[in-house]
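cron nightly-structures :: item 1 of 1
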Amino acid sequence: MAAQTSDAKQVDYRVITRVGSFVDRDSWATEGMRCSIEQALDLVGTRSAMILLREAFSGVRRFDELVRRAGLSDSVAAKRLKELVEHGLFTQEPYRHSGSRTRYEYVLTERGRALFPVMVALMNWGDELDDGTGVVDLFHADCGAPVSSVLRCAAGHDVSLSDTCARQKQQGRETDRS
């Protein structure tokens, strides 16, 4: 299914293979169902949310520093951080400097930390835009090798787009393989 381009590179045009009732997507009811990608984007799909998460993954926790590093207004950052706390991506932990009022740090929760592979994938993809370089290199502390996001099945196999199948879930369970 690969097509040859003018520069003699092979391009794979294959995408996810639909199986089972998912083959004819128009034949199954979607009423009351919500796409998982839409749910995720509703939560973190704004530029401000992603930039605040980027800063949190870099160790920034205090509101003033988050605002400064993210380049957001106080009101935008406050609104987005409130939403991220409400949805369980951050928790607020109090701190207080002597002689001043109690303030809160924004700390990633396990749910928030679970976005790390997504952030790495976006960073890797973004590095390839334009001139192919970024400003930050992520590497493994133990061996120094670059960090990348890899798609892998539960059995441990690396999986490409064309190696992926999709089927409709029914009441929280997947349907048969075919």
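cron nightly-structures :: done
Residues 169 and 175 are 6 Å apart (CA to CA).
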